Amino acid sequence: VWRPGKAAAEGVNVKGIVEAVHDRTSVLTRPDFYDGVKPIAANIDQIVIVSAILPELSLNIIDRYLVACETLHVEPIIVLNKIDLLDDEGMAFVNEQMDIYRNIGYRVLMVSSRTKDGLKPLEEALTDRISIFAGQSGVGKSSLLN
Q1: I need a surface site. Which of 33, 64, 116, 132 has the fewest CB within 10 A?
Q2: Are 45 and 30 in contact (CB under 8 A)?
């Protein structure tokens, strides 16, 4: 458990204090060249899988993250960003693809970090949860968090 520290204590800027360490209920890891496996995050409730609609929607990447979520017993949320770049035909195609995931019980959110469309349900999904955002570079993870 972390809390903000005092602004300045005897000329030392304390940014935060760890007050307690809880047992791990889940650990997300990645391969590491030197150590074999490196922990990335622990005790997460959900993984927000962010994918961009354009230049190309990658179902393979989404599937790989879903496998990781199922292995960890962590709830996934699929977030498709940049929907503002789609025309009606493109939106219909993407919705058809996402119905595959919806029909087997996964939550799918369609958002635009640029226009702010669809961000309210994402904000609600993050409330009182420990989440990690995952996705390829350039899909808009930082833009969604900002």
Answers
A1: 33
A2: no
Q: Kindly compute the dihedral angle of the four CA atoms of residues 93, 98, 99, 101, in this order, to the nearest 10 degrees.
A: 160
Q: What average pLDDT is seen over the chain?
A: 87
pLDDT digits (tens, 9 = 90+) for 6-53: 655 555 666 777 788 888 888 888 888 888 888 888 888 899 999 998
Give tens-digit pLDDT for 69-96: 998 899 999 999 999 999 999 999 999 9
Using DSSP bridges, classify how beta strands 36-42 and 27-32 pair: parallel, antiparallel or unpaired: antiparallel
What is the distance in angstroms between the CA of the first residue and the CA of the last residue of the chain?
A: 23
